[in-house]
């Protein structure tokens, strides 16, 4: 398969149109006196939109992103964007173990860049160069520069595409996999489908995919499941509309950059480990880099496809390859019992609840995640 180098280059007219739209934004009034209680705070959004229109330097962000080796290849019949970082290791050192890092929604490849740097070039971050990994960071199908799949978007389908990328396109016979959210589901499927090629799997979002018909939940597990259901009542409105009427909301977000920004920032605040203070975790340039990528590619609607097709996902079979969980510190996984992960992973070798880093853990805590991956995958470099 042909792999083509790729550079991000947003046309000037797209940026000019974006600024013009931002300056014409009509803002709503708050529905609740408590800030953020009813969604993205209008006052916060007004300030962030003003900075996006007159202050944010996209070209500087673009240059920083293009410092990474972007590539595009046709995989499973659709264009797939990915970053491929080769390990910087001592001459004569054993071949590095490749790792594929998978993001979720409303995220992007940007989430994984800090971790990817630390893994591919540990010496530059105070580590041992012998610990370097090859790192592959794909954009999920329908996200940014990757095309939608030819069939439904399922986590199993993405795992099949990732395996084709890693083994067929890039020529790796054995690799490890890491991810959270959608990427965590993809990672589990990689371990379930390709145990002869996947050295191990590491996730941050310990999703529930156990078969409770065969073994009912324990009291601790049921307590967690009840708490999760209660949390979802207040949080799942966004997913309900994207599961049932994605094109309706996408029409608004494709036309209004302020609306797009509100939709994305709401989740960056709610799901990250920021205690409700967006600025504690996210500087404005980071948020606007992600939003500009979604805007320039017009991919917010296609990123909803995995929600619309969600009902087509099947339960992940029991995963037998070595597994690790570094549990996300976000409301959905508060008090998540280890036993639920053990129902899915037959060989759970690493379990950690650092209580730092939320839904976007790799972005929020890159040092922590890189250390966790090095600790887990280091011993797996050689076949057991």
UniProtKB/TrEMBL annotation:
Epoxide hydrolase N-terminal domain sequence ranges: 3-112
A GO MF term: epoxide hydrolase activity
Highest rank taxon of the organism: Bacteria
Keywords: Aromatic hydrocarbons catabolism, Hydrolase
Gene3D superfamilies: alpha/beta hydrolase
Catalytic site positions: 181 (nucleophile), 307 (proton donor), 359 (proton acceptor)
Protein name per its UniProtKB record: Epoxide hydrolase
InterPro entries, A to Z: AB_hydrolase_fold, Epox_hydrolase-like, Epoxide_hydro_N, Epoxide_hydrolase
Hydrolase is among the record's keywords: yes
Any one GO BP annotation for this protein: epoxide metabolic process
Family: Belongs to the peptidase S33 family.
């Amino acid at each position: 398969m042909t792999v083509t180098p790729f550079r991000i280059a947003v046309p000037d007219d797209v940026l000019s149109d974006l600024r013009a739209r931002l300056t014409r934004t009509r803002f709503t009034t708050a529905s609740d006196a408590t800030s953020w209680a009813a969604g993205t705070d209008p006052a916060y959004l007004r300030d962030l939109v003003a900075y996006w229109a007159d202050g944010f330097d996209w070209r500087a962000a673009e240059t920083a992103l293009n410092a990474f080796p972007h590539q595009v290849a046709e995989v499973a019949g659709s264009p797939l964007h990915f970053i491929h970082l080769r390990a910087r290791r001592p001459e004569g050192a054993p071949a590095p173990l490749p790792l594929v890092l998978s993001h979720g929604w409303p995220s992007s490849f940007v989430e994984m860049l800090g971790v990817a740097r630390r893994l591919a070039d540990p010496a530059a971050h105070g580590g041992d160069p012998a610990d370097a990994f090859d790192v592959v960071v794909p954009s999920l199908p329908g996200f940014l520069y990757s095309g939608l799949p030819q069939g439904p978007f399922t986590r199993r389908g993405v795992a099949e595409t990732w395996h084709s990328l890693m083994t067929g396109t890039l020529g790796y016979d054995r690799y490890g996999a890491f991810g959270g959210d959608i990427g965590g589901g993809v990672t589990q499927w990689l371990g379930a489908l390709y145990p002869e090629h996947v050295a191990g799997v590491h996730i941050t979002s310990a999703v529930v995919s156990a078969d409770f018909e065969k073994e009912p939940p324990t009291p601790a597990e049921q307590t967690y499941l009840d708490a999760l259901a209660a949390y979802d009542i207040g949080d799942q409105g966004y997913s309900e509309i994207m599961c049932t009427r994605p094109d309706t909301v996408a029409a608004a977000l494709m036309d209004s950059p302020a609306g797009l920004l509100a939709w994305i920032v709401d989740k960056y605040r709610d799901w990250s480990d920021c205690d409700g203070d967006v600025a504690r975790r996210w500087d404005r340039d980071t948020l606007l880099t992600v939003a500009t990528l979604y805007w320039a590619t017009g991919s917010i609607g296609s990123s909803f496809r995995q929600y619309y097709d969600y009902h087509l996902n099947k339960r992940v079979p029991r995963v037998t390859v070595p597994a690790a969980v570094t549990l996300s510190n976000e409301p959905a996984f508060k008090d998540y019992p280890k036993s639920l992960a053990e129902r899915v992973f037959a060989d759970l070798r690493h379990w950690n609840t650092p209580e730092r880093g939320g839904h976007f853990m790799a972005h929020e805590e890159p040092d922590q995640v890189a250390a966790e991956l090095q600790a887990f995958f280091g011993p797996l470099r050689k076949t057991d």
